């Protein structure tokens, strides 16, 4: 039970009460004005009355108190109250008490107060201090007399003086002064007892005790001693319990002592339980339940029979309350069966139910008495099967208005909670009720801070779209949000920050819709196999839609709202890292920190007005003046660097479309660097659209063939399109930096695209696997290997193209044969040069060297990210070195892994034999054939494969020279004999013609020399195998 009449009043805090109890002036000075106002009666008396303590420390404290009171206006009225003649007031009060005793407590003539002309409140307002004292004293004495004559029966006295909210503080001041100055006439325990019978009595009682803190235990014991044995049986007992709880909240250190008084007096058992609950809550200890068990078990199992009987009665009364509740439920059931649902609501909200709340709380939390579900089974059946069936609830739920401006600040049970539970139980799909529009409207009506139920709602909604409610009805799913509805949310956003006022939806709604789209696509890919097995293919959002959503811009906005968005920002980053890795490049995040850092912010505070005066049309005109006039373009570009990323978006198309003009001779390097800087800033908000425009702008200008306009999808399928740009880009470091950035991004995007494509076409694996004897895993492994091979070929091709770009062109070779000679010529002081030639050579050297540094940085990043690229490139580019290195490693580490790599090398050599030309065949096999001897020495099982390879090499060489001469046939014959009868010829190798022939490499024909080298290699392998080396 709670005294709702005191709910709006401020009580004395435990901190303030402790300060008063210890007379801690420092703590009193730290109190706020409202808290200090409640303690003024005691503080004013303390400052004005002669103290018993004459020490120097108290003198200093008294000065601080006076200084504390000097600025409070209400002090003057309290000083006036203390100036009254209390001796005469006490005599008049005594006479009135005697008069009332003779008249039997009637309300006749009053000595303290003459005939009132107006109401008590109005008289109090117009009275001076002495009369105010008399008015309050007369009213209080009247209540005390009535209490003494009531014989324990509780009553509630209506008094304007104690009920008017305007004069509560003044009446409390008068009450405290009266009790302090007339203690014999107004004993504090009797005054406390009287205050229980008026409105706001608990508040007056707390203020009275706070101004006389030493009386706390006396007041509590008196109230408990005068209380009922069972406090739940009457309104008076509940008011007494509530007043004592307020006192214990004001002085929590004495709560357990007051509980001991309750047990000692065997009164107010509900108070003892309530104080135990309050103490457990305040202490917030882990053993709170054990404290409750100890208290209750100590009462019920103790040796004091009086206490056991008293508390046992309290429990039995609680059981009677439970029976009353059951009867109430039967009445409700009866009312529903009679068809009176209106009476149901009235009955559930009757005062009788409110009276049971406290007892039920005690029963459930302390004694853990749980109402059996069986007693409510009939009620549950009526509600769920007859009145509010699942179909009725779902049909009504979609018509419930969404919560406007939904945020975490809106607490309580909201419609979104109901929709979430119905979605989880698949009620909407079972009864074919469309919930899509409601969810869309609710997502649009959101704001910060983010409500915690929104993300779970989106997840369960996506699940209800993709997976049917039951296998028997695979079509029972919700409908996804349409693409047009998604685009409406982002309308007006792609224009940059300057169009923000035209946005219709909040950033919270846009981020939630983005989270929905990304989560939907991820869930769709994750469940492709299951959906294919069920022969279902839900609609996927098109790539055109994804291209129109400014994902990076929204993520950047969410980064600044992480506190308000809860876990939404981290969830979006997870989805991006999985599905859009090209938008999560670490280099981009570092660049973004530099762009949005303090230095950039300080620069943008300068000349921002001038920078915004330039339009995209003016920028286009400045580009058209190149290469003759570059001053105006440089000025506009410098001013654009002061704009933020969002404000630069309108200039993106003009900036990228004119990049081809920057490749002409005579364009200053500063313009190129500024364009690179602006491009990097735009890359933080619109990377995908920017990359497509840049790739199309940097295409080689071919007048005969019409240039193809690539799309985002084209570039993800074939990232090497980025490197098919104008050759002049390869010697322009600022533009090459942009190209490498796009290449790295599209390589990552291509991997994500192929992974997604593999999952999207997973149903192709299920169909053949049904009749596949090798099991369903075989197609998956094959397609996965093909994808990995394609990605490896793609990465290695990019690496090899970049390595070729690092090589000097013919023009660069004319100036210097190598980098070493260039550096040596620069360092040499002999041989003077003309300044023009030296400047041109330095320019070529600087551009080439800078491009090489940029490419090498990217290659190192690729190698670190995937070390297998290094191995692949070595085998594709440096065949000879790789095979020679492998031969030494096989001798040193004859391991199973080395055997597999050696077998791979032999297969590669056999493949290259069929594709290499005569000159390349000679250059490749002459240094690698001796390595085959090491392979045989390390791994004898490779003998047959190596001998077959050697014979094939000899036959290919013989076929090339067969049209010229037949002298080669004897060598082929000898090779065949060496392979078929190695043991017969092994003993003759040292002195036989084989040795002389193998060493006779006098022919200038490369095929003849290679064939003789093959013969020498075979002989060496045979000698090694026969000798047992």
Category from helices, strands and their pairing: mainly alpha
Number of helices: 60
Ranges where pLDDT stays below 50 over 5 or more residues in a row are 334-360, 495-502, 773-779, 818-841, 985-1002
> Rg from C-alpha positions?
47 Å
Proportion of beta-strand residues: under 5%
State the end-to-end distance: 101 Å
Shape assignment? elongated
Largest sheet: none
What's the rounded overall pLDDT mean?
79
Family: Belongs to the Integrator subunit 2 family.
Protein name: Integrator complex subunit 2
Subcellular location: Nucleus
InterPro entries: Int2_metazoa, INTS2
Describe the structure.
With 1029 residues, the chain is an all-alpha fold. The N and C termini lie far apart (101 Å).
What order do the helices and strands come in, and which of them pair?
Elements: H1 14-22, H2 25-29, H3 33-37, H4 40-48, H5 56-69, H6 75-82, H7 86-102, H8 120-126, H9 129-149, H10 160-163, H11 168-181, H12 188-195, H13 201-211, H14 216-225, H15 235-250, H16 255-265, H17 269-283, H18 288-301, H19 305-337, H20 341-348, H21 351-355, H22 357-365, H23 377-387, H24 390-397, H25 415-424, H26 427-430, H27 436-444, H28 454-466, H29 483-489, H30 507-526, H31 528-533, H32 543-548, H33 551-559, H34 562-565, H35 568-579, H36 586-595, H37 598-604, H38 608-612, H39 616-624, H40 631-640, H41 645-648, H42 652-657, H43 669-682, H44 687-697, H45 712-717, H46 733-760, H47 763-769, H48 777-806, H49 810-815, H50 819-827, H51 835-865, H52 868-877, H53 879-892, H54 896-913, H55 918-938, H56 943-961, H57 969-980, H58 982-986, H59 993-999, H60 1006-1027
Helix pairs in contact: 4-5, 4-6, 4-11, 9-11, 9-12, 11-13, 12-13, 12-14, 13-15, 14-16, 15-17, 16-17, 17-18, 19-20, 25-28, 28-30, 30-33, 30-35, 39-40, 40-43, 43-46, 46-48, 46-51, 48-51, 48-52, 52-53, 53-54, 53-55, 54-55, 54-56, 55-56, 55-60, 56-57, 56-60, 57-60, 59-60
């Amino acid at each position: 039970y709670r005294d709702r009449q005191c709910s709006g009043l401020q009580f004395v805090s435990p901190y303030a009460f402790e300060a008063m109890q210890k007379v801690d002036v420092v703590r009193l000075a730290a109190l706020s004005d409202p808290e200090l106002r409640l303690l003024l009666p005691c503080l004013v008396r303390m400052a004005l009355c002669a103290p018993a303590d004459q020490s120097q420390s108290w003198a200093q404290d008294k000065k601080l108190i006076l200084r504390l009171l000097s600025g409070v206006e209400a002090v003057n009225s309290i000083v006036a109250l203390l100036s009254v003649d209390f001796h005469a007031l006490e005599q008049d009060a005594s006479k009135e008490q005697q008069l009332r005793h003779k008249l039997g407590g009637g309300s006749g003539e009053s000595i303290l107060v003459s005939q009132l002309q107006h109401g008590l409140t109005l008289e109090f307002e117009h009275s001076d201090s002495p009369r105010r004292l008399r008015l309050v004293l007369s009213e209080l004495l009247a209540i005390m007399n009535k209490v003494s004559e009531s014989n324990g029966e509780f009553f509630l006295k209506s008094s304007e003086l104690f009920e008017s909210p305007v004069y509560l503080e003044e009446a409390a001041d008068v009450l405290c002064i009266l009790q302090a100055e007339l203690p014999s006439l107004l004993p504090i325990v009797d005054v406390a007892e009287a205050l229980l019978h008026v409105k706001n009595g608990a508040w007056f009682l707390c203020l009275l005790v706070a101004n006389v803190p030493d009386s706390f235990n006396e007041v509590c014991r008196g109230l408990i001693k005068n209380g009922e044995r069972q406090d739940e049986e009457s309104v008076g007992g509940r008011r007494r319990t509530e007043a004592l709880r307020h006192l214990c909240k004001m002085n929590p250190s004495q709560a357990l002592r007051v509980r001991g008084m309750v047990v000692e007096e065997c009164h107010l058992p509900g108070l003892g339980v309530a104080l135990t609950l309050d103490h457990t809550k305040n202490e917030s200890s882990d053993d709170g339940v054990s404290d409750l068990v100890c208290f209750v078990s100590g009462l019920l199992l103790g040796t004091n029979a009086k206490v056991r009987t008293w508390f046992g009665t309290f429990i039995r009364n609680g059981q009677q309350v439970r029976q009353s509740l059951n009867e109430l439920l039967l009445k409700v059931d009866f009312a529903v069966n009679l068809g009176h649902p209106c009476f149901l609501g009235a009955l559930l909200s009757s005062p009788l139910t409110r009276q049971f709340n406290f007892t039920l709380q005690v029963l459930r939390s302390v004694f853990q008495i749980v109402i059996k579900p069986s007693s409510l089974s009939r009620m549950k059946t009526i509600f769920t099967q007859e009145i509010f069936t699942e179909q009725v609830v779902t049909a009504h739920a979609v018509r419930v208005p969404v919560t406007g401006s939904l945020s975490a600040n809106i607490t309580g049970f909201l419609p979104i909670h109901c929709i979430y539970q119905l979605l989880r139980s698949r009620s909407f799909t079972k009864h074919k009720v469309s919930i899509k529009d409601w969810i869309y409207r609710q997502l649009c009506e959101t704001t910060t801070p983010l409500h915690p139920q929104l993300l779970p709602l989106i997840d369960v909604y996506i699940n209800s779209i993709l997976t049917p409610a039951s296998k028997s009805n695979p079509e029972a799913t919700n409908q996804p949000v349409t693409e047009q509805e998604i685009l409406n949310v982002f309308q007006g956003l792609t224009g940059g920050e300057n169009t923000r006022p035209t946005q219709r939806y909040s950033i919270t709604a846009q981020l939630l819709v983005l989270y929905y789209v990304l989560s939907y696509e991820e869930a769709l890919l994750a469940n492709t196999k299951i959906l294919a097995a069920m022969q279902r293919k839900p609609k996927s959002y098109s790539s055109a839609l994804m291209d129109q959503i400014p994902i990076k811009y929204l993520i950047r906005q969410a980064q600044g709202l992480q506190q308000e968005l809860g876990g939404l920002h981290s969830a979006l980053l997870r989805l991006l890292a999985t599905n859009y890795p090209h938008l999560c490049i670490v280099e981009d995040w570092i660049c973004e920190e530099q762009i949005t850092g303090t230095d950039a912010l300080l620069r943008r505070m300068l000349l921002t007005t001038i920078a915004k005066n330039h339009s995209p049309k003016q920028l286009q005109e400045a580009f058209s003046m190149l290469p003759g006039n570059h001053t105006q373009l440089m000025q506009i570009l410098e001013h654009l660097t002061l704009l933020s990323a969002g404000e630069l978006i309108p200039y993106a198309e003009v900036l990228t479309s004119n990049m081809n003009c920057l490749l002409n001779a005579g364009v200053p390097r500063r313009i190129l660097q500024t364009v690179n800087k602006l491009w990097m800033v735009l890359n933080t908000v619109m990377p995908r659209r920017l990359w497509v425009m840049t790739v199309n702008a940097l295409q080689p200008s071919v007048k005969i063939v019409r240039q193809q306009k690539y799309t985002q999808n084209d570039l993800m399928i074939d990232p090497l399109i980025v490197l098919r740009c104008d050759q002049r880009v390869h010697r322009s470091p600022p533009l090459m930096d942009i190209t490498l950035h796009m290449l790295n991004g599209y390589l990552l995007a291509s991997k994500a695209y192929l992974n997604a494509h593999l999952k999207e076409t997973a149903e192709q694996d299920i169909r053949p696997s049904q009749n596949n004897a090798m099991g369903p895993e075989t197609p998956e492994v094959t397609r996965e290997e093909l994808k990995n091979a394609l990605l490896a070929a793609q990465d290695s091709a990019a690496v090899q193209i970049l390595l070729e770009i690092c090589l000097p062109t013919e023009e660069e070779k004319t100036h210097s044969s190598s980098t070493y000679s260039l550096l040596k010529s620069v360092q040499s002081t002999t041989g003077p040069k003309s300044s023009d030639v030296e400047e041109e050579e330095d320019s070529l050297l600087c551009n080439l060297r800078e491009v090489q540094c940029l490419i090498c940085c990217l290659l190192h990043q690729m190698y670190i990210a995937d070390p297998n690229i290094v191995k692949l490139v070595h085998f594709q580019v440096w065949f000879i070195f790789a095979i020679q290195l492998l031969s030494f490693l096989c001798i040193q580490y004859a391991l199973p892994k080395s055997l597999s790599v050696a077998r791979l090398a032999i297969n590669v050599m056999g493949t290259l034999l069929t594709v290499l030309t005569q000159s390349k065949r000679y250059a490749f096999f002459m240094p690698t054939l001796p390595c085959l001897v090491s392979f045989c020495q390390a791994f004898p099982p490779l003998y047959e494969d190596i001998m077959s390879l050697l014979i094939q090499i000899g036959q290919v060489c013989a076929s090339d020279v067969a049209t010229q001469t037949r002298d080669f046939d004897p060598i082929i014959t000898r090779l065949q004999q060496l392979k078929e009868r190695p043991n017969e010829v092994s003993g003759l190798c040292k002195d036989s013609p084989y040795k002389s022939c193998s060493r006779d490499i006098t022919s200038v024909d490369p095929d003849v020399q290679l064939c003789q080298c093959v013969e020498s290699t075979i002989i060496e392998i045979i000698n090694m195998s026969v000798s047992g080396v």
